[in-house]
Design goal:
The protein is α/β, with parallel strands linked by helices. The protein has helices at about 10-20, 35-40, 50-55, 85-100, 110-115; strands at about 25-30, 40-45, 70-75, 105, 120-125, 135. The longest helix has 14 residues, at about 85-100.
Length: about 140
């Protein structure tokens, strides 16, 4: 056991997050996402919903503040302006992690898949809600 580490952050996930470099991306994916087919590195968090996974990841992962949006979600097919329940839950977690409001990019389904394909890792959750997917870009920890 380690002190101060969210219990959802198991050794495989911590290794993936620590191995990422600035600008690398990780996908937090719902149970419907084709994670195994798409992932370069697949990490599983079965039984955990996507916002809980995001909350845990954000305790150790700095978000990229050199880009317009360090996060992207999949837009609802046929209703791209609708904000699904899981995405509504993502917003305050991102805002809190960055200490300011974070713009979340919305990508259509196939653009989301294309961006997800080269991601450093895919974190497959057990969230069965549609559109409970988010891509995060890793930032840096500055010493200044």
């Amino acid at each position: 056991m380690l002190k101060g580490i969210d219990p959802l952050l198991h050794s495989d996930l911590l290794h993936a997050l620590a191995s990422m470099g600035h600008g690398d991306e990780i996908v937090i994916a719902d149970a419907n996402f084709p994670a195994a087919a798409m992932a370069r590195r697949l990490v599983r968090l079965d039984g955990v919903d996507a916002p809980a996974a995001l909350r845990a990841v954000l305790t150790v992962l700095p978000l990229d503040d050199f880009v317009e949006s360090p996060a992207a979600v999949m837009a609802v097919v046929g209703d791209p302006q609708r904000v699904p329940e899981a995405v509504r839950a993502f917003q305050p977690l991102l805002d809190s992690a960055m200490g300011r409001p974070v713009a979340i990019a919305r990508l259509d389904r196939f653009a989301f898949y294309e961006r997800a394909r080269p991601a450093f890792a895919v974190l497959a959750t057990g969230d069965t809600r549609k559109y409970a997917n988010i891509i995060l870009a890793k930032g840096v920890i500055a010493r200044d």
